[in-house]
Amino acid sequence: MDHSSAIALAEKQASLCRVFGNARRLLILWAISKEELPVHEIAARAGSSLQNVSQHLNLLKKSGIVTARREGQTIYYQIADHIYLKNCPALSRAPDVLEKTNE
Q: pTM score, two decimals?
C-alpha cells in the first residue's frame, strides 16, 4: 500500500471512529441492529427526540453506515452493511432493553 492510500484509509477509519464515538449514535445503531425501523420507533427505543435522532441518522447515512427507504411519509432505517456489527464489539452487543418499546 502506498503512502497516499494509507493516509486515505486512516482518514476513513478516523471518520468512522468519530461516528461510533457518540453515545446517542450507538443507541440508535443498537436499536436498528436487528431490524429495519421507522424514525419514530428508533427515537422511542433510543430515548431521544425525533429531531435529535433524525440529525444523527442523517450523519450515519452520509457516512454510509445506515441506509434509508421511504414508504409513504415514513422513513425506515437499517444498518447498511452488517460487517460493522461483526467488526465492532460496541455494536455487536446491543442491550435487550432497546429491542422493543412499550407501545
A: 0.77
